[in-house]
Design brief:
mainly beta; eight-stranded mixed β-sheet; 24 strands
Length: 203
């Protein structure tokens, strides 16, 4: 399958590397003016109409931007593809939503549900019956324990953890190393052990 990668920054390197290892052919990379000329040897273009492809993935870390671009490319009639690194472990009955990345060393356990256009970074552990909302980002080495959940557009910072059955509201940000021991509201920046809201997103 010929994969169009949208985004030409550092995260695009991760996506291209994982996609190649998963058997995709990289059809091209779409970037912006001022981006590098190539990513891992693949030329960067600013014209998606000039690249023939079968599917796309958005390789942009910012959740809001990634969500907007995902909708825009779908509206163009294009099909999103998920990329799962061969070293990731995906359990029986786990679901990986369209257009998501599961990076090297990640574990997605039985009956977990990963939303669309989501980034599951290196070494993450998503336990049984967890729910991850669309357009979310899990930083490296995040741990979600059994039946925990995060809403749409959530960022779980590197090394953060969510204990069993707890929920993080949509479009919240959980800081690096934080431990979620109680439900957290939407649109909040949350830090610490235990994690506590410190301000609204955007403030």
């Amino acid at each position: 399958m010929r994969l169009l990668v949208v985004g030409a920054g550092g995260h695009a390197k991760v996506v291209v590397d994982a996609a190649r290892k998963a058997g995709f052919e990289i059809a091209g990379i779409i970037g912006r003016s001022g981006d590098p000329a190539d990513v891992l040897g693949v030329p960067v273009s600013t014209d998606p109409d000039g690249v023939s492809s079968d599917a796309f993935i958005i390789a942009i870390g910012d959740n809001r931007v990634r969500a907007d671009m995902f909708a825009a490319y779908r509206n163009r009639g294009m099909t999103p593809a998920s990329v799962i690194h061969p070293s990731a472990i995906i359990a029986e009955r786990a679901r990986i939503g369209a257009g998501s990345l599961v990076a090297a060393g990640a574990i997605v356990s039985v009956s977990a549900d990963i939303g669309e256009n989501t980034i599951v970074n290196h070494g993450c552990t998503i336990d049984h019956d967890c729910r991850v909302g669309d357009h979310s980002l899990l930083g490296p080495n995040v741990s979600m324990c059994g039946a925990s959940s995060i809403g749409e557009g959530v960022v779980l910072g590197v090394g953060s953890s969510v204990i069993p059955l707890k929920r993080v509201g949509a479009w919240s940000i959980v800081g690096a190393g934080a431990v979620v021991t109680s439900d957290l509201p939407a649109q909040s920046v949350c830090v610490g052990v235990p994690a506590r809201p410190v301000r609204q997103v955007g403030q």
